Amino acid sequence: MDVNAAVAAAAAIAGVLTGVIAMLAFRWSERDQKRPTRTSLHTDPVLPPGVDTVLSVLRSSAVVLDEADAVVKASSAAYALGLVRGGKLSVDPMLQMARDTRRDGEIRQVELDLPRRGTGRGEALAVSARVAPLGSRLVLLLVEDLTEARRIEAVRRDFVANVSHELKTPVGALSLLSEAVMDASDDPEAVERFAGRMQIEATRLTNLVQELIDLSRVQNDDPLEDAEPVRVDELVAEAIDRCRHQAGTKQITMAAGGTADLHVWGNRGQLAAALGNLVENAVNYSPARTRVGIAARRVSAPGGDHIEVAVTDQGIGISEKDKERVFERFYRVDPARSRATGGTGLGLAIVKHVAASHGGEVTVWSSEGQGSTFTLRLPEAGAARDRAHQHPDLDDEAEGSPDPSPYEPLPAPEVLP
Fold first, then answer.
1. Would you state the pLDDT for residue 383?
2. 229: which residues sit within 8 A by CB, 6+ positions away?
3. Cβ(144)–Cβ(126) under 8 Å?
4. CB within 8 A of 118, min separation 6: which ones?
5. Beta partners for 353?
6. Measuring CA to CA, which residue among 340, 334, 349, 288 is closest to residue 313?
7. Distance of CA 70 to CAs 42, 60, 63, 93, 114, Å?
8. Residue partners of 397: CB distance under 8 A and separation at least 6
9. pTM for this structure?
10. Phi and psi of 289, rounded to 5°?
């Protein structure tokens, strides 16, 4: 009996031990299945909660790297900039920054010039890269494109430098002339001569300041806020009247013609200034006893009819190398001639900005020694034209008159005395 009892007890103990071992083995296997392996860390990384949402709304290009430098998450902007290729970060300096940050946990930032993809030109892409740790094993890279900001800053520096130079010339001349007047106080003829020169320099300074104000207004104002139907023949008449004195002094013939009954839609003051600048340039750069013509016409375009106002002169013309630059601020084809006529180099820049802000453009054709034609092309105000034809009393036309028209014909060519 004792032997049988001992065997039974031993069998019971063995069964219990077997059950316990089996249960422990099952739980251990289940925990191993839940534990992330090194392989799973690389193949199925998980971003901290909320990071994916934050990255999706950032304006900067974003790239998240894991501990093996593989890309876990990248924004579409990062792909567009060429930062990520084949699941890897393709910019070596940024990759090295990420490794250093992963090693010591420090935030790093650097500005780089990267080659621009898809262009045969040597243009560089200016970027600012910032690397920071994201959790215990991920690294976040934020890249901001600074190319446009740098371009604007360069334009601003050039503009300030040009303005300083242009202002320095007449101000310096006025200072010297004032000293000359003081030294020649006992010579009435010299005082009168120097005073005349001072008036010329003061006028040049006034014109420069006014054109700077006009250019600033054109760039900052929205022409559509005060838009209205503008009669083209009125703009032409104003431009001719503005240059009447200069043209008369040089015995230049100013002729206006083309299609009547034309309207454009926009800011009347800006449009008048733009066309006035074109006509004034034509007169200033034309020799004596020549002709300046202004003609308007309607042309068909896919998006609707446009109005073209062409200003043609018989002046010195523009070379091929200068045609691309004549609309730049302060650029002068003939600096000596421009200073003699009081030009500031801002007139055509104003024309370009006015045309662009009104949905149009300005172009130039020129041949050296034969003259130039500047063409201002603007969308036509078709609705305004139709309304004017339906209501001929807009211009105080008498009722019942035959074939009433709200427009006056363009002035006939005239030779100024």
1. 40
2. 263, 264, 265, 381, 384, 385, 387, 388
3. no
4. none
5. none
6. 288
7. 8, 20, 10, 16, 21
8. 404, 405, 406
9. 0.52
10. 60, 40
DSSP code for 261: S
Q: How far is CA 308 from the centre of its chain?
A: 24
Contact 61, 139 (CB under 8 A): no
Q: CA quadruple 167, 267, 381, 297: dihedral positive or negative?
A: negative
Label the pairing between strands 228-231 and 371-379.
unpaired
Per residue of the chain (417 residues), what is the pLDDT tens digit?
455 666 566 666 666 556 656 565 556 555 544 444 433 333 345 667 767 777 776 778 888 988 888 888 888 888 888 888 888 888 888 889 889 988 888 898 988 888 776 544 556 788 889 999 887 788 888 988 888 888 778 777 776 776 776 677 778 888 888 888 888 888 888 888 888 888 888 887 887 777 777 777 666 666 666 778 899 999 999 999 988 888 898 999 999 988 888 999 888 888 998 999 899 889 988 889 999 999 999 998 877 889 999 999 988 888 887 877 888 777 766 554 445 545 566 778 888 888 888 889 999 998 888 889 999 999 988 643 444 444 444 333 333 333 333 333 333 333 333
DSSP assignment of 73-135: EE-HHHHHTT-EETTEE--HHHHHHHHHHHHH---EEEEEEEEPTT-SS--EEEEEEEEEEET
Token pair listed for 278 = 């074109």
Written as six digits, the tokens of 28 are 């251990």
The CA distance from 197 to 203, in Å, is: 10
Which residue in this structure is represented by tokens 């630059």?
325
Q: Which amino acid is at 275?
A: L
b vs e for 325-345, b when ≥16 Cβ sit within 10 Å of the residue's Cβ? ebbebbbbbeeeebeeebbbb
Distance, in Å, from the CA atom of 407 to the CA atom of 382, rounded to the nearest integer, reads: 15
**217 to 153, 172, 214, 223: CA distances (angstroms):** 20, 27, 5, 10
Could you count the other beta carbons within 10 Å of the beta carbon of residue 235?
Answer: 24
Residue 258 tokens read as 């083309």
Letter for the amino acid at 193?
Answer: R
Alpha carbon distances (Å) from 395 to 42, 85, 241, 392, 404: 79, 66, 21, 7, 10
Task: Kindly state the tokens that stand for 191.
Answer: 């005082």
Burial of 291 (0-12, 13-18, 19+ CB in 10 A): middle
